[in-house]
Amino acid sequence: MNDLLEKIEAAGLIGRGGTGFPVYKKWKSVLAAENNEKFVICNASEGEPGVKKDWELLSKEMDQVFDGMCLACKLIGAKKCWINCNYEYLKKLKKSLEKQVERLAKNNIELILFEEKKNSYLGGESSTIMNVIEGKNEIPRSKKFHATEHGLWGKPTLINNVETFFDVAAVANGTFDNTRLYTISGAVKNPGVFRVSSELSVHDVLEKTNNAIDPKSFVQIGGGACGEIQRGNNLDKPAIGAGSIEVFPLETKPKEILIRCLEFFEKSLCGTCTPCRDGVPQILKLLQENEEVSWKEILEITEVQRISAFCGLGRSIDTPVRSLYESLQK
Amino acid sequence: MTTTFFIDGQKVTAKDGESVLQAALNAGFDIPHVCFGAELKSTESCRTCLVENEETGRITTSCSLVPKEGMKLSTKTPMVEKGRKINLELLFANHQKKCPDCAEGRWCKIAEKCKSRGLDLKKFAPRTKQGKIERFYDGPCIEFDPNMCINCKKCIEVCRSCSTAFLAEKGEGKHATMGTLTGKVACIFCGQCTTVCPTGALREVRSIKQAEEALADPDMFVIIQPAPAIRAALGEGWNQKPDNTSTGKMYAALRKLNPNKIFDINFGADITTSVEANELVERIENNGVLPMFTSCCPSWVRYVESVQPQLIPNLTSARSPHIHSGVAYKTWWAEKNNIDPKKICVISVVPCTAKKYESSRKELFINDKSIPPVDICLTTRELIIMLKSRGVEWNKLKEDKADALAEHSGAAAIYGASGGVMESALRNTYWKLTGKNMPNLDFKPVRGIQGVKSAEIKIGKLTVRVGVISTIRNLPFILMQLKKDPKAYHYIEVMACPGGCINGGGQPQYEDKNVVKERQESLYDIDSHKKIRTAHENKEVQNYLEWIEKQEESIKESFLETHYHETEI
Question: What pTM does this model have?
Answer without folding.
Answer: 0.85
